[in-house]
């Protein structure tokens, strides 16, 4: 399936907002030398107001956050090829071809909607979902393909008695491992995902309830999440 590149409006507006914050900072710094680039807003009277010091100290950090963090997708869009194709064996992005068989780790950074695909040769492909049409469908395609590729090795290691690492979580034949503690399958009441909004950020968590106690794990810190979820779906219904 092919996906066309789309303009990241939210990211672009964040860049504009960051530039505006820097402009306000510059206007405030120029007032003492009687240069007024915002004559009706940033004036000597405003500079002497108690709230001006707050604006002065927050302008630059806000600009850095908006431009470098929230606006990073816009700068990536400028150098991203116009088409992305996903097939059964891999994906093609411009001149780069990534075979799913070469992927060793899948990481979905939910707070930025980025997918990181690590390969055997130590390289990482960052897939910025917001740069493509039908991002949810694209995510599902990559999750399914990568999950199918990695699942066999995970099951083999589990049957061999190993603990398979999934970032913040581990998986054993007997249950899940979190912060060094084993959570047996029989003790797990429910497992669900949960979204928590805080300002402009949305944090995604995996909530595990065992013996009435809840554990919240940041989903961005879970590696190979599609494989982990598939393993959980296979094991939990029996308990």
Mean pLDDT: 89
Low-confidence stretches at least 5 residues in length (pLDDT < 50)? none
Structural class: alpha+beta
Query: In percent, how much strand structure appears in the residues?
Result: 25-35%
Order of helices and strands: EHHHHEEEEEEHEEEEEEEH
Work out the helicity level: 25-40%
Cα-based radius of gyration, to the nearest Å: 23 Å
Biggest pleated sheet: 4 strands, antiparallel
Query: Roughly how many Å apart are the termini?
Result: 38 Å
Shape: flat
Spatial strand arrangement across the major sheet = 1-2-3-4
- How many helices does DSSP assign? 6
Number-wise, the strands total: 14
Topology:
Elements: E1 2-4, H1 9-30, H2 44-47, H3 52-70, H4 72-78, E2 83-86, E3 90-93, E4 96-99, E5 103-109, E6 114-119, E7 124-128, H5 135-159, E8 164-166, E9 169-172, E10 175-178, E11 181-184, E12 188-198, E13 201-210, E14 213-218, H6 225-235
Antiparallel strand pairs: 1-2, 2-3, 3-4, 5-6, 6-7, 8-9, 9-10, 10-11, 12-13, 13-14
Walk me through this protein's architecture.
This protein is of the alpha+beta class. It is 37% helix and 31% strand. The protein has six helices and 14 strands. The chain has helices spanning 9-30, 44-47, 52-70, 72-78, 135-159, 225-235; strands at residues 2-4, 83-86, 90-93, 96-99, 103-109, 114-119, 124-128, 164-166, 169-172, 175-178, 181-184, 188-198, 201-210, 213-218. The strands form four sheets. The chain has a four-stranded antiparallel sheet with strand order 1-2-3-4, covered by helices on one side. A four-stranded antiparallel sheet has the order 8-9-10-11. A three-stranded antiparallel sheet has the order 5-6-7, covered by helices on one side. The protein is flat.
């Amino acid at each position: 399936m092919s996906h066309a590149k789309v303009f990241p409006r939210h990211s672009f507006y964040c860049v504009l907002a960051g530039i505006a914050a820097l402009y306000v900072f510059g206007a405030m710094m120029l007032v003492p030398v009687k240069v007024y680039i915002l004559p009706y807003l940033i004036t000597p009277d405003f500079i002497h107001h108690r709230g001006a010091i707050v604006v002065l100290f927050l302008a630059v950090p806000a600009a850095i956050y908006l431009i470098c963090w929230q606006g990073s997708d816009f700068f990536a869009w400028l150098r991203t090829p116009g088409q992305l194709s996903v097939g059964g064996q891999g994906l093609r992005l411009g001149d780069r071809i990534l075979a799913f068989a070469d992927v060793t780790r899948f990481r979905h950074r939910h707070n930025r909607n980025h997918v990181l695909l690590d390969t055997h040769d130590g390289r990482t492909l960052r897939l910025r979902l917001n740069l493509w049409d039908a991002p949810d469908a694209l995510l599902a395609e990559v999750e399914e393909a990568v999950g199918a590729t990695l699942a066999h090795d995970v099951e083999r290691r589990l049957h061999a008695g190993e603990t398979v690492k999934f970032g913040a979580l581990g998986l054993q034949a007997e249950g899940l491992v979190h912060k060094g503690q084993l959570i047996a399958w029989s003790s797990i009441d429910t497992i669900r995902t949960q979204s928590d909004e805080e300002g402009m950020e949305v944090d995604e968590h995996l909530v595990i309830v065992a013996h009435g106690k809840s554990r919240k794990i940041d989903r961005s810190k879970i590696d190979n999440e599609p494989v982990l979820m598939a393993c959980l779906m296979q094991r939990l219904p029996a308990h």
